[in-house]
């Protein structure tokens, strides 16, 4: 039997693909969070050491993937962390807001249980810091800072489960649900939402049942708000 031929020669990758990878790393690594405007094209050309057309092709590929979003006259913004996040966001925007909340509830309850079982001290410290940021913004009456801190707190709770895929699934859904809540109403409502401090304490104590109950209290409060505000038609309608 003749010997197998040598492995096929893999052609060199296009430079634009490498640029896509580099930009994706900056987004996934948190250097450019969701909502951030990325550097202008000349800055990217200088920083990456590639041609203008190469940068333009890479940015366009990330726009098609739903990760970047061009805004006429205002630059290009990060819309999602990953392609999975973007796909989930597109689907959730056409779903009933209460259905989106139900999926969020399932993911966050499960994450809280896993986080409590893990009882990772470093994750608990990050959670406590996120809670402190939220409480500080509430005391200061800074609605924008409070909203950002609230989003960060729930994201950190899910991240404390130690499962990156779970975090991506949650982020894709949570970003859409948050767009159904007007900024001012969201801030006023969430200042009185129960469960935030309780879930941190439960995770720190390794009490999975208490952690899940605390998340349940938070989710129920959000559900009551959506119902009273009439936001249960579609997520897109509330945006």
UniProtKB/TrEMBL annotation:
Superkingdom of the source species: Bacteria
SMART domains with a match to the protein in the record: FCD, HTH_GNTR
PROSITE patterns assigned: HTH_GNTR
Gene3D superfamilies from the UniProt entry: GntR ligand-binding domain-like, Winged helix-like DNA-binding domain superfamily/Winged helix DNA-binding domain
Chain segments annotated as coiled-coil in the UniProt record: none
Annotated HTH gntR-type domain residues: 13-81
CDD domains, per the entry: WHTH_GntR
Keyword presence, Ligase: no
Keywords: DNA-binding, Transcription, Transcription regulation
Any Pfam family hit: FCD
Cross-referenced InterPro entries: GntR_C (IPR011711), TF_FadR/GntR_C (IPR008920), Tscrpt_reg_HTH_GntR (IPR000524), WH-like_DNA-bd_sf (IPR036388), WH_DNA-bd_sf (IPR036390)
Protein's recorded name: FadR/GntR family transcriptional regulator
Organism annotation: Isoptericola hypogeus
């Amino acid at each position: 039997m003749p010997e197998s031929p040598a492995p096929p020669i893999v052609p060199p990758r296009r430079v634009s693909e490498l640029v896509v990878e580099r930009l994706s790393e900056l987004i996934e690594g948190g250097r450019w969070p969701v909502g951030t405007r990325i550097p202008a094209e000349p800055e990217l050309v200088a920083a990456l050491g590639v041609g203008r057309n190469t940068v333009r092709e890479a940015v366009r590929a990330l726009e098609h993937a739903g990760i970047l979003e061009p805004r006429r006259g205002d630059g290009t913004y990060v819309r999602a962390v990953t392609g999975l996040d973007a796909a989930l966001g597109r689907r959730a925007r056409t779903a009933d807001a209460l259905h989106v909340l139900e999926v969020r509830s399932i993911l966050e309850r499960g994450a809280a249980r896993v986080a409590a079982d893990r009882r990772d001290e470093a994750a608990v410290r990050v959670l406590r810091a996120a809670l402190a940021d939220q409480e500080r913004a509430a005391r200061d009456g800074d609605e924008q800072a409070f909203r950002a801190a609230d989003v960060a707190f729930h994201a950190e709770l899910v991240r404390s489960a130690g499962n990156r895929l779970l975090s991506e699934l949650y982020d894709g859904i949570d970003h859409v649900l948050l767009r159904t809540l007007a900024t001012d109403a969201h801030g006023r409502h969430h200042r009185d939402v129960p469960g935030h401090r309780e879930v941190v304490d439960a995770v720190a104590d390794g009490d999975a049942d208490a952690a899940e109950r605390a998340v349940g209290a938070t989710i129920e409060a959000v559900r009551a708000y959506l119902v009273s505000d009439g936001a249960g038609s579609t997520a897109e309608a509330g945006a």
